[in-house]
Design a protein that fits this description.
This protein is mostly beta strands and 290 residues long. Helix content is 7%, strand content 48%. The protein is built from 3 helices and 22 strands. The strands form 6 sheets. It has a 6-stranded mixed β-sheet, with no helix packed on it. The N and C termini lie far apart (63 Å).
Length: 290
């Protein structure tokens, strides 16, 4: 699989953004899309039109005309966002779904993101209607180097999926932007509730910090100006309830004061943004005494 994030000026423009091959990986030839798809038979010109009109002896005998392949959808990571930190590779599936009277045989899949983000790979189809291929992304330095392997902060956000599928009868179909998904920076939250224990009715101070992966520096840094929920779960319950919302400081820190009512667990919860994944702190237990 070839994977990289390159500026648009490094790509050829033939109707799609196609990156040059890396190492031994070679991208399949791209067809300029017409509407939602382009058939390989149609690209062949007048001769293909004539042959299509004549059909094969089997087609003539059966009275049927072969249909062009169709791509109907692309599902990335089973419908979940792809969350990437600064240490480990993240591998996820992309499934292309479609149909053809001869069955789908092979798929070439491109992922395109903000600021030139680009990955490509291909795979044989596992069934006549579905082709699943795996992608691996990361944001950590290459071994023995200070250079990033793949992602930069500017690549976080909404990505699109282009797919080229080949059928067993030789026809092909290209479907641009057949799917989309979020590729996001990982976030983390901490919490501390004190004093422990506390007298009922006395104040409890809850602090914490929200940080997110910086794909440019390979560190976690405070996430500024974000709304975070303070949640409480009674000792006898398994359900957290939001009791307050707090905005992170310029360094990502959180602080608020609540009144002690019952013994239980306090935590911070962040729902995420278009570029950053969600996060929850592990609950901090505070005993409340009469």
């Amino acid at each position: 699989m070839s994977r990289f994030a390159a500026p648009p000026s490094d790509r050829h423009n033939d109707g799609r953004h196609t990156a040059p091959p890396i190492a031994t990986a070679t991208a399949a030839p791209r067809r300029k899309p017409v509407g939602a798809a382009t058939s390989r038979a149609a690209v062949a010109g007048t001769v293909a039109v004539v042959l299509a009109g004549l059909g094969t002896p089997a087609d003539a005998a059966s009275g049927t005309t072969p249909s062009d392949p169709v791509i109907t959808s692309a599902t990335v990571n089973s419908g979940h966002d792809v969350i990437v930190g600064i240490t480990h590779n993240v591998t996820f599936p992309v499934t292309i779904t479609g149909s053809d009277d001869s069955g789908l045989a092979f798929a070439d899949v491109d992922l395109k993101g903000p600021h030139g983000g680009f990955y490509t790979t291909d795979a044989f189809c596992q069934t006549p209607t579905a082709c699943t291929t795996m992608f691996t992304v990361n944001a950590h330095p290459a071994p023995g180097s200070d250079d990033p392997v793949d992602l930069a902060n500017a690549n976080a956000g909404t990505w699109s999926v282009d797919a080229l599928a080949d059928a067993h009868d030789g026809d092909s179909v290209f479907a641009p932007r057949v799917g989309s998904f979020g590729l996001k920076r990982a976030a983390r939250l901490t919490v501390n509730a004190s004093p422990e224990p506390v007298t009922k009715g006395a104040p409890i101070t809850v602090t914490g910090k929200l940080v997110r992966a910086n794909w440019d520096t390979y560190r976690y840094a405070g996430y500024t100006g974000q709304t975070v929920q303070l949640q409480f779960r009674p000792k006898s319950s398994s359900t957290y309830t939001t009791v307050a919302t707090v905005t992170t400081s310029s360094t990502g820190t959180l602080r608020t004061t609540v009144k002690a009512a019952n013994a239980g667990y306090w935590r911070w919860k962040f729902t995420g943004t278009t570029t950053t994944g969600p996060a929850k702190a592990t609950g901090d237990y505070v005993e409340v005494r009469p």
